[in-house]
Amino acid sequence: MPSGPQGQFLAVEWDMTTGTAVVVLAGELDIASTPWLSGQLAQILARKPQQLVFDMARVGFLDCAAARLIAGPGRSLPEGRRPVIRRPSPAVRRILELTGLDAHCEVER
Asked: How buried is residue 90: exposed, middle or buried, by Cβ count under 10 Å (0-12/13-18/19+)?
């Protein structure tokens, strides 16, 4: 599991089996962690997953920049596929709704 930026509480672990990349996020996703997270996503997308799932059950905070970063990889997925946001907290769900980014993802409860 890669560790987050120094001084930040952020963890990302991912596993890609059967063409599905499951990205488990934990911590606070904000402007300070966005560049690091972008690098992690670039590594994942380089493997050309057929589906991308973000498990966000352990994310305590999500800012707009991080929300755009998570919704953005849909352009790299096969046509008709959108990133899946799994188990977002009410606060994360609210940011996705307020920014309109929930329309670019599949949000699971």
From this structure: exposed
Question: Could you report the per-residue pLDDT of 77-92, keeping only the tens digit for each?
Answer: 999 899 999 999 999 9
* SS (HEC) of 44-70: HHCCCCCEEEEEEEEEEEECHHHHHHH
CA-to-CA dists, residue 41 to 67, 89, 94, 109, angstroms? 13, 21, 23, 23
In the sheet that holds 20-29, the strands lie side by side as: 10-17, 20-29, 51-62, 84-86, 106-107
Residues with Cβ within 8 Å of residue 41, at least 6 apart in sequence: 23, 69, 73
Domains and CATH numbers, the chain: 10-107 (3.30.750.24)
**What is the pTM for the complete model shown?**
0.86
In this structure, how many other beta carbons lie within 10 angstroms of the beta carbon of residue 72?
Answer: 16
At residue 9 the predicted structure's pLDDT band, cuts being 50, 70 and 90, is low
Report the C-alpha gap between 98 and 81 in whole angstroms.
22
